[in-house]
Specification:
360 residues; 4-stranded antiparallel β-sheet; 9 strands; 34% helix
Length: 360
């Protein structure tokens, strides 16, 4: 990244994403993407002449591209995703700052440090480079983009959505609201599934979870950990396959509004004594509060809290899946109970008078 915009011109080759057709001289009808990019950066675009008429204009750029390719991309690197490839290329680019061109005294990084103050500031609003497409969500809650399938929340089945396809990512929007985001797949015919998109369906059909593609990908990405597996096994052993799987799905729904590490801590604390999503939620919130006591005090919850002990934070009923409510009632000091502060019941004279004896 340059970190700025050139003052005069941005000169580039006649790439198809910016130029729709090459005319005589430097006349080029531009595409919408090239026009929006120039308007965002407030720069002037200039294209080179065709290679047949002016071989010297773009030879330097192509030569440097060829040098970088031969140095770092031969043989072709084997990576699992575009993210890892881009990370590796960024490392090569940083290392290139120490290189000297021919007999120059300064390195590439030193020359750029001298030129960097001459650049314009970047625009306040970033330019979203990408290809806008339209797709319909199929009955399996997936959209097809460039022969690859990506999941969206199941409630959008049958809807027509917009897709912004970037170089390394893909964003699905319903109107102006983003509903899904994935890393762009580089393999045709692949399926990129997110388990969270199918939780509402799995609550009604728990038998579809064990063999699902979304679960297999979640395990591969370490989003379905050994803590989830242990809770699932304990819940199925205690309640059966269907009810135990529903309990797991309720735990997975907690990831939508609780941090991932907090839910994992809640699973670890709860799995030894209970198999209820309510217990996991209580333990996860307790872990979050203990990890961030400042936020807990700001919310007004840490004033009367006692120091956590293994006995004090055990909220599980052994042998059951319920939660024992040991917290004081709202508005009462710690250590007191609602029964000790309830108002005495006023009885009328008819209620307090003794009952007459029945004659036998």
């Amino acid at each position: 990244m340059l970190g700025g915009v050139p003052f005069d011109k941005i000169r580039y080759d006649n790439l198809k994403s910016a130029v729709s057709r090459v005319l005589f001289g430097r006349n080029r009808p531009s595409r919408n993407g090239g026009s929006r990019s120039a308007a965002t950066t407030a720069s002037t675009r200039s294209t080179v002449n065709p290679v047949v008429t002016a071989r010297t204009e773009n030879g330097g750029v192509e030569g440097q591209g060829g040098r970088f390719r031969r140095t770092h991309l031969v043989p072709v690197p084997k990576v699992d995703s575009l993210v890892k490839l881009n990370t590796r290329l960024e490392g090569y680019d940083r290392a290139d700052d120490a290189r000297r061109i021919a007999n120059r005294t300064r390195t590439v990084g030193a020359d750029f440090a001298l030129e960097h103050p001459l650049l314009q500031r970047l625009p306040a609003e970033p330019f979203g480079a990408g290809l806008w497409l339209t797709s319909r969500v199929d009955r399996h809650a997936r959209v097809m983009v460039r022969q690859c399938q990506y999941s969206v929340p199941a409630r959008f089945i049958g809807r027509r959505v917009r897709v912004r396809l970037g170089a390394s990512d893909l964003v699905v929007l319903d109107g102006r609201t983003g509903i899904a985001s994935h890393a762009r797949s580089v393999q045709k015919g692949s399926q990129t599934m997110l388990l969270d998109h199918y939780l509402e369906v799995l609550v009604r059909k728990p038998g579809a979870l064990p063999g699902s593609t979304a679960l297999a990908q979640a395990r591969k990405q370490d989003r379905f950990t050994s803590a989830h597996e242990a809770f699932w096994a304990a819940a199925r052993k205690r309640h059966g396959d269907a009810v135990g799987t529903r309990a797991l799905v309720e735990v997975l729904l907690l990831h939508r509004h609780l941090a991932f590490d907090d839910v994992i801590a809640g699973l670890t604390a709860a799995v030894s004594g209970a198999t209820s999503a309510d217990v996991v939620a209580v333990e996860a919130r307790l872990h979050a509060n203990l990890a961030d006591p400042a936020a807990d005090r700001a919310a007004g919850r840490g004033k009367d809290r006692q120091s956590p002990t293994p006995q004090g934070r055990d909220l599980r009923r052994r042998g059951t899946g319920g939660v024992a409510d040991r917290t004081p009632a709202a508005g009462l000091p710690a250590g007191s109970s609602a029964l000790a502060h309830r108002r005495p019941i006023r009885r009328t004279a008819a209620q307090t008078s003794p009952r007459p004896h029945c004659k036998r």
